[in-house]
Write a sequence for this structure.
């Protein structure tokens, strides 16, 4: 039998409700939840001896169940004569002190200040079906009557779906009256999934509007949100922020509902925030593997990403997470990234904190009482030591942090918080420093001090860097591009002039400076804060062969190109990112690959030199355009894709006849590497130059 209205406007109709209860008969209709689902919030805000008015009572058992547990001073009203008659007959002998009256709540017959609580379960939602003038006037009369019959200190407790227009009206009305406004979430969508009767996919909320005595001239407004899982309300600054917070809860509930009903929704991610501060504490990614054959124990698992490793391809990219989920062998895997600035006691405390919340994201068909496994790398949560935080006027907020890698070595990273999942610069710490940091962490743990506090600053941060090691794959490829120069086996004795645009932590120019003793490097960096970061935290230093220019790379190259006796560089490298996240190309900014500017780059490059560019472009059409533009200026163009990343390294030269076949290119790379691997010189044995050029393609 269809008992739900065809149009929401019917909710406001007397005739509809008369017909509804005649069809329904004596079977209770529990709008927005049963007593068991709502009793927590009801008992929190209603005292047993208070006088309670229930408006729009219908034939719900809520009043009866409240009466039976000690709330016996209850008056019920409804506009339907049919339901009032039913309820009187049902309760006359069993609940003699509870009354039922046929009454219009917009014109109540009670004296002023008659009640301490007005309880409304879905009635406001039923009346406020739209925002037409007639409807709004009716709601104004209803809410004015609620205010009139309540005593000072009394509460209007309204159970609602908190749809945007309902929340706006209720909060606006009572905040203007000087009442305290609190919204309390009382049910999640997960509770409603297995019900016999059709219900609402939105979560249920309670509005608790507390009547204050009017104070002349006072503009004080109080807005609070109390989430289902926490007892302590959070104070919010405005009605708009309250509405936004409610909308976030509704979107989360809808997401849980969708994830329960079906798998394979695509890329799904969400943040779980600290209830006290509102700051993100965990970032969750839901990964479904529909090809995994279901069994009793492989429905669902949680994977805790060790701190500092969330930027790795396996954890930080969608394709990587899919590979992780497939190898783990679960139908649904949720990866959990831990945020910097938050304190974590260990795997057990994280599991206890997350268990209830992540179960809301479980798939359908999971056996009852199934123990959901929490997985990680090596069974721990990793190490992240925040060494320094600051704000650059150009680059925004940034952080310097030391993290422990898969091999237990420590790495120092520069992260721009505007793009917190991208490592801007990275360097490996020397082994003895890593060992001291590990000992220090154990000592700190005994003192119960969090490992990511500023108190962990090392004595000499710039002296701890392993300068012979390149962490970034795209830097390794850019260095390998030097094999394109003439006679690579003699480069250590050859004076080389290099221009590097984009300093970052300084690892790239520093590596060239230390391994090519005759090189002279000009580095250009637009942000003076980055020079300070590179010098203080990444072991960078200037010398007679290394000069940093604080300038816009566009202006610097334009100025050089316009000089009469313009300098010429054997190598020009662009490793500069865009600050505009809306572009399909994050490296370099589009102006750096404009035709006119590329002509200026060409004018300061030696005839047999190489222009090396780090390209990060997700827009395929834009990338084709960039490659075509480069090809028009530099006839010889090689491309090297960085595996597992979006980066592509472009090697550009002026003469197409200088084109090298892959075997020749690899031979030149081996010759350069053999020269660099001189005894007594620091060299990373895992860095094979020819491997960097093995997959190079000519455009």
């Amino acid at each position: 039998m269809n008992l739900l209205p065809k149009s929401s406007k019917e909710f406001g109709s007397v005739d509809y409700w008369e017909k509804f209860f005649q069809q329904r008969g004596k079977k209770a209709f529990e709008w927005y939840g049963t007593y068991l689902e709502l009793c927590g919030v009801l008992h929190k805000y209603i005292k047993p001896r208070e006088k309670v008015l229930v408006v729009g009572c219908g034939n719900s058992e809520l009043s009866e169940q409240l009466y039976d547990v000690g709330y016996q001073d209850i008056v019920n009203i409804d506009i339907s004569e049919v339901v009032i008659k039913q309820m009187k007959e049902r309760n006359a002998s069993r609940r003699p002190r509870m009354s039922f009256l046929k009454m219009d709540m917009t014109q109540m017959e009670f004296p002023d200040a008659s009640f301490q609580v007005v309880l409304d379960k879905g009635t406001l939602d039923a009346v406020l079906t739209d925002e037409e003038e007639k409807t709004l006037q009716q709601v104004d009369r209803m809410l004015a009557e609620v205010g009139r019959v309540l005593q000072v200190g009394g509460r209007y407790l309204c159970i609602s779906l908190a749809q945007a227009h309902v929340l706006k009206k209720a909060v606006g009305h009572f905040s203007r009256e000087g009442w305290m406004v609190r919204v309390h979430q009382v049910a999640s969508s997960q509770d409603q999934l297995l019900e016999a009767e059709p219900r609402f996919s939105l979560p249920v909320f309670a509005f608790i509007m507390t009547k204050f005595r009017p104070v002349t001239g006072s503009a004080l407004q109080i807005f609070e949100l109390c989430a289902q899982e926490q007892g302590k309300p959070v104070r919010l600054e405005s009605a708009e922020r309250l509405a936004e917070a409610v909308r976030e809860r509704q979107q989360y509930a809808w997401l849980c509902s969708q994830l329960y009903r079906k798998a394979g929704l695509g890329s799904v991610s969400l943040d779980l925030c600290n209830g006290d501060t509102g700051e993100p504490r965990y970032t969750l990614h839901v990964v479904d593997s529909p090809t995994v054959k279901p069994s009793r124990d492989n429905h669902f698992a949680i994977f805790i990403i060790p701190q500092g490793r969330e930027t790795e391809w396996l954890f930080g990219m969608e394709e990587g997470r899919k590979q992780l989920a497939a190898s783990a062998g679960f139908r649904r895997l949720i990866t959990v990234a831990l945020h910097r600035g938050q304190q974590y006691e260990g795997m057990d405390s994280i599991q206890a904190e997350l268990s209830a919340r992540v179960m809301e994201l479980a798939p359908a068909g999971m056996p009852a009482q199934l123990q959901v496994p929490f997985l990680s790398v090596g069974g721990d949560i990793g190490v992240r030591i925040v060494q320094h935080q600051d704000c650059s006027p150009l680059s925004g907020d940034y952080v310097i942090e030391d993290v422990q890698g898969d091999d237990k070595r420590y790495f120092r990273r520069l992260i721009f918080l505007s793009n917190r999942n991208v490592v801007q610069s990275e360097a490996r710490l020397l082994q003895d420093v890593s060992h001291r940091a590990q000992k220090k962490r154990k000592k700190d743990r005994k003192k119960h001090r969090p490992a990511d506090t500023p108190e962990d600053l090392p004595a000499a941060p710039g002296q701890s860097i392993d300068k012979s090691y390149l962490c970034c794959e795209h830097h390794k490829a850019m260095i390998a591009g030097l094999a394109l120069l003439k006679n690579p086996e003699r480069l250590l004795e050859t004076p080389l002039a290099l221009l590097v645009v984009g300093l970052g932590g300084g690892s790239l120019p520093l590596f060239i400076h230390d391994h090519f003793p005759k090189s002279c490097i000009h580095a250009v960096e637009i942000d003076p804060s980055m020079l300070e970061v590179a010098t203080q935290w990444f072991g960078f230093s200037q010398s007679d062969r290394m000069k940093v220019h604080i300038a816009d790379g566009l202006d610097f190259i334009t100025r050089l190109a316009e000089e009469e006796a313009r300098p010429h560089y054997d190598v020009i490298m662009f490793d500069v990112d865009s600050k505009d996240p809306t572009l399909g190309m994050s490296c370099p900014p589009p102006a750096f690959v404009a035709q006119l500017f590329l002509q200026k780059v060409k004018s300061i490059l030696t005839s047999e030199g190489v222009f090396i560019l780090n390209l990060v472009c997700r827009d395929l059409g834009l990338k084709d355009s960039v490659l075509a533009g480069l090809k028009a200026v530099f006839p010889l163009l090689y491309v090297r894709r960085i595996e597992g990343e979006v980066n592509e390294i472009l090697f550009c030269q002026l003469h197409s006849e200088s084109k090298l076949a892959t075997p020749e290119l690899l031979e030149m790379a081996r010759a350069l590497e053999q020269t660099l691997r001189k005894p007594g010189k620091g060299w990373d044995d895992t860095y094979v130059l020819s491997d960097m050029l093995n997959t190079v393609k000519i455009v």
Notes: The first strand starts at residue 52 and ends at 55. The chain has 20 helices and 27 strands. The CA atoms of residues 445 and 451 lie 8 Å apart. The two ends are 68 Å apart (CA to CA).
